[in-house]
Amino acid sequence: MDKIVGFCDQYVRIAYNNQTAESIIDFLCADLLVTLDSAKTAAPRATCEVSVSENEQLFSLHRNGEQLYRGTCQRALAYALVNEIIFQCLDKNESGLALHAAAVQVDKGGILLPGNSGAGKSTFVAWLTACGCGYLTDELVVLLSEDSHHIYPFTRPLTIRSASAQALAPYVQFKKDEVLTGESGFMVPHRQLNPDFTPAQPPLSLILFPRFQAGASAQLTELTPGIGCSRLMECYVNARNIPGHGISELARLTRKVPIMEMTYGSFTDLGTLLADTLPDFFRDIFSQPPSC
């Protein structure tokens, strides 16, 4: 038994041995599954094998016969599988600029939330999604260059760390029986936070760098195109595949799109700040005192 998942016209075949293994794949890849017809004639870049023992105590992952994970934690298996899918779909990707970033959609368009691990982007996008923004991703986007840049999101469950879960607890109620839990946190389906999900690839309208700093008051700072381009370079993951490493394209992008940095230490009054400072994007989301 197997399934095909795809991103940016790159495909991975995932074989599995039982219903539990299938449920893990469906949990991770609900928005990435494709049919063989959709994959056209492109051959999968790799075959991954997900195996779960009969007593559901042992989980393993192989790629083309090479063992990538073997252990007792479903979340660790899921994390290894999603990272392998990302690698295979980006390794030779030339379709656009791939960035380590979260993203949401509002009526104005797509909001890109770049940042390296630990910046607070997953926590922030979880809060925005619970408040009514359209979830796109908390991990990876490719900016497609056509008439303008569009966000093509790698849509997966959100990865929430234990400390972040505590900060989100007053605003988000997680259904514990629908998450994959590990020692450092858990993965939650984004439809738990906002069931009104519609897949989208919106035009990029705003770049907002979130930065969590414990105890800090929320503030927004406008960045120059030069600084914004430099900051994006820190999150840029497929430069070697793009002519000229894509630097001129990043520079052109940052001259066209507003760029802000947001520092926050909690969600208290954050909705008011966003609505007041960026009303074109957040006024409708936070038009009334939110529970978020």
Please characterize this protein's 3D structure.
By secondary structure, this protein is α+β, with helices and mostly antiparallel strands. 26% of the residues lie in helices and 32% in strands. The chain has eight helices and 17 strands. The protein has helices spanning 19-29, 74-90, 121-131, 162-168, 225-233, 247-256, 270-277, 279-282; strands at residues 2-7, 10-16, 33-34, 46-52, 59-63, 66-71, 96-106, 109-114, 134-137, 140-145, 149-153, 158-161, 180-181, 185-188, 204-212, 219-222, 259-264. The strands form three sheets. Strands 7, 8, 9, 10, 11, 15, 16 and 17 form an eight-stranded mixed beta sheet that branches. It has a six-stranded mixed beta sheet with strand order 3-1-2-4-5-6, covered by helices on one side. A three-stranded antiparallel beta sheet has the order 12-14-13. β5 (59-63) and β6 (66-71) form a beta hairpin. α5 (225-233) crosses α6 (247-256). The model has no long low-confidence stretch (mean pLDDT 91).
